Amino acid sequence: MRMRRQSECHIVGGATRASGANPLESLVNKAQMNGMGIALRRISQPCRRFLSTVSTLSDESTALSKMMPSENFVKQFIKRPSHRDKLSSLVSELDMFLDLFGKDSLPAFDDSLWTTYFQTWSAEERCEFLNDLRQEQKKANTPAPVPEGEKASESISLINQRREENGEMVYAPGFHSLLELRGQEFREVIDNMYGSRLLSMRRCDENLPKLVVDCRFLSEFSVAVQSTFARQIQALHDGNWTSRQPFDISLANFRPDSQLAKIVKRHWFFHYGPPSAGTSFSPHAFAPTLTTKSVVDACSVDRSDVMYISWRARQFLPEDAPPNIRAVVLCASNDYQPWSSSVSAAQKDGITAYRIPVERHIRFEGHSKVLPLSTTSSILRYYFRGEDLGSAIRKSVFLPAKNSRLSEKEEREVFERYKAVVQEAIARAESHSTHKRTKKPSDMPKKPKVHRYSREERRRMRAMETSSRDLSSSS
């Protein structure tokens, strides 16, 4: 039976509340009470029954019921006792994460998420992966802002319904509309508009420079960073898909391993289609192209006509767009480490690197100065259309409100504490197992020696051998 928790840590609206202890003490107490002094606690008894019989969980673990792997996953991946132990630890980490950030802080885990989570061996990467999923779920659950002066109950549909009941002519979806498009039909119309805009720009020789995303470092990043850039590239296509002047986008140096392939298949709807489409999906003819070619080969122009955008470059973008530029390269990297530097990537390809002077026009005040790919492409679209660079930056960059920064900071602090406890628990478990393996033979209990023959049988055998030797010597 699980021990009753002495204190719990809750996140309510981004703020941390603890009953009887601060978040760190509550976290440590939870870890110690559940057996994390040496290792993360083993999965609870209902979860053990699940692993052996793949049955449903009891009401005590309802928060974990939506996170449990399927029977097919267990049959495919849980084949050894070490696999069972690892799955127990992973479910314990999930349970602890849900206790801290809320039972609805993570999406329901399907086999695709479980495969990525189970095959991530680093504890730090697993923690970052969970936090990345939490932030994605938080954005999905954030309601749209209600206009000022309008009550939440007074939605547009209710207002239109009231107007129709009063005998007024209402022009809106579901009432009277000349053309009503929804779902897949709406996406097909946007697909046609997207293709026609690209073709008309080519026919009129009004093309924007080709936009190339350099993915050479993508397979080397952690699962969380890979998921972040996978979503950024999908958002890049979404913004380009509905733009009046779209870019021709290519993804160069894309050489995914098995882990990255599963992540992009989950996020890149423009190439693989939504999960509901199944095998009937076919990508758009002008969707972003995935290629293993180098950046220069993907640009298909001379190096002198290519511009590489880097947030670490020393040379700023000129105020007016150079007329010779035929391709622009964005790097899928945060430039946090020297090995993933976009400047070094540009130098290796012999391309001049430029930096967008965002600091001249935007005050960040603690925010990251590395902008998402979709925001960068929006700045470049205005820039190559001939607009002022400062105006392009101000139109494209949107920083979160000041009151949201405090909650994000507090959530990050709680997450860092959670990650520290998980890493410490796993380190103690590894040191404990190493100590057990390196025990001296003298410290190990001796096994009882079992003779093949009894004492009397051995004496008779020795007497027979002695008598046979005496007979042979006398003869």
UniProtKB/TrEMBL annotation:
Annotated region described as Disordered, given as residue ranges: 427-475
GO molecular function terms attached to this record: methyltransferase activity; tRNA binding
Regions of compositional bias (Basic and acidic residues) in chain numbering: 453-463
GO process terms (BP): methylation; mitochondrial tRNA 5'-end processing; positive regulation of mitochondrial translation
Residues of the SAM-dependent MTase TRM10-type domain: 194-406
Any GO CC annotation of this UniProt entry: mitochondrion
Keyword Methyltransferase belongs to the record: yes
Claim: Phosphoprotein is one of the keywords in the record: no
Keywords in alphabetical order: Methyltransferase, S-adenosyl-L-methionine, Transferase
Domain of life: Eukaryota
InterPro entries: MT_TRM10-typ, MT_TRM10-typ_sf, tRNA_m1G_MeTrfase_euk
Record's protein name: SAM-dependent MTase TRM10-type domain-containing protein
Gene: Acey_s0011.g1316
